[in-house]
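In the design runs reported in the main text, the only information available to the sequence generator was the tokenized backbone. The following block is the verbatim input for one such run; it is reproduced so that readers can re-run the procedure and compare outputs position by position.
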């Protein structure tokens, strides 16, 4: 496995063209997709024909330093989901999004915090990142708690995108959290 980043319990790697089934399985769980699509699964052909090719193209665009990374338990190698550390499509490389999507079996084990904390460290010490941001729905208290554990601060409220208006709690909009390199260094 070509490891991108390791934590105490996790190994993150770049996705490959052979990983479509991992993404399809993850996105087929209604609980995982609750705050993204209202629980509707992502169509397998969409994963194979658009999402995975876009993930792979991101590695080319950002020299493998930024993108979406498969997360596996170091003990046993089980796929638990993915983490993201990447800029907006045409955004500056020193302002990146942090995110994650984990299988239900990995919930409540501290993996989202552990993986995110390690990515923040890499972003600020190795990749020249100045600001990291994360967004979620206002009602997604689990993700908001993780952002706060990472010492990210609530920066803004955001409207619900039109394609997410069917999601439970969409009427409350979303939130954006941020942390700068300086804030991270002072934590």
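Verbatim output:
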């Amino acid at each position: 496995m070509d490891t991108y980043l390791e934590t105490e319990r996790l190994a993150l790697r770049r996705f490959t063209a052979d990983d479509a089934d991992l993404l399809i399985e993850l996105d087929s769980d209604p609980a995982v997709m609750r705050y993204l699509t209202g629980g509707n699964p992502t169509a397998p052909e969409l994963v194979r024909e658009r999402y995975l090719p876009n993930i792979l193209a991101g590695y080319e665009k950002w020299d493998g330093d930024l993108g979406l990374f498969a997360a596996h338990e170091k003990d046993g190698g089980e796929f638990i989901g993915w983490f993201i550390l990447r800029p907006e499509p045409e955004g500056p490389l020193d302002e990146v999004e942090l995110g994650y999507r984990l299988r239900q079996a990995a919930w409540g084990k501290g993996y989202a915090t552990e993986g995110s904390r390690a990515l923040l460290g890499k972003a600020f010490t190795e990749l020249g990142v100045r600001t990291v941001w994360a967004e979620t729905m206002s009602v997604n208290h689990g993700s908001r708690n993780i952002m706060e554990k990472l010492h990210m601060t609530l920066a803004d409220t955001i409207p619900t995108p039109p394609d997410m208006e069917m999601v439970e709690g969409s009427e409350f909009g979303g939130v954006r959290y941020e942390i700068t390199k300086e804030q991270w260094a002072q934590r």
